[in-house]
Automatic annotation (TrEMBL):
Gene3D superfamilies: Tetracycline Repressor, domain 2. It comes from the Bacteria. Residues 8-68 form the HTH tetR-type domain. Residues 31-50 bind DNA. Coiled coil: none annotated. This is TetR family transcriptional regulator. Keywords: DNA-binding, Transcription, Transcription regulation. The keyword Cytoplasm does not apply.
């Protein structure tokens, strides 16, 4: 195993431990010593890798964003040209993840207030996530709707992403029902982008 892969494995193990402790107790309650103990390394190793608790928070927030957007892209790609199925899968995944993952929910909703010191690291990622999620939709729809008007496609993607976030902030119906309605809307918006009025 190379030195780089050892370092990556070490860092991932530390971030995994920090994430588990954060979900269990909140970031305010996370101590670097507890992270080290949970990761099976020394406290000094945690500091060597991340510099400070703020550096660890930054790494944790970045990984949550990368994994979330990656999963959205995978859900879209798995359904190829079936726009409705891809949209449903991505939307349902997003709603379910936000319901089960307090870190992703904080990122998507830009939750503020409270005393949790991790929130600033998460909420500064909100615009990045919205932009990257919209980009994933645009890339995917652009592949299967090659004649679509780029401006209309960008508006459709942004609209869907913002509507999904609004249903995370104020859920009204079960996930399946909401995902179905939003996927149907996505089909209409993307179809309109692909066939703009002359």
């Amino acid at each position: 195993m190379t030195e780089q892969s050892n370092t990556t494995r070490l860092r991932n193990g530390i971030v995994d431990a920090a994430r588990a402790l954060t979900v269990a107790t909140g970031w305010d309650g996370v101590r670097m010593g507890a992270v080290a103990s949970a990761a099976g390394v020394s406290r000094q190793t945690v500091y060597n890798e991340f510099g400070s608790k703020a550096g660890l928070a930054e790494a944790l927030a970045r990984r949550e964003v990368d994994q979330f957007v990656g999963a959205v892209r995978a859900a879209l790609i798995a359904h190829g040209p079936d726009v409705r199925a891809g949209a449903y899968a991505a939307i349902a995944h997003t709603l379910a993840t936000a319901a089960d993952n307090p870190l992703v929910k904080a990122i998507l909703t830009s939750a503020r207030g409270g005393s949790d010191e991790l929130l600033p690291y998460l909420t500064t990622r909100a615009e990045v996530v919205l932009t990257e999620a919209s980009g994933a939709l645009i890339d995917w729809a652009g592949t299967y709707l090659p004649g679509a008007d780029p401006t209309a496609l960008a508006f459709a993607a942004d609209t869907i992403v913002r509507l999904v976030v609004s249903h995370i902030v104020l859920p009204r119906d079960p996930i399946d029902q909401t995902a179905t309605a939003l996927a149907n809307l996505a089909v209409r918006l993307f179809t309109a982008a692909a066939h703009p009025p002359r």
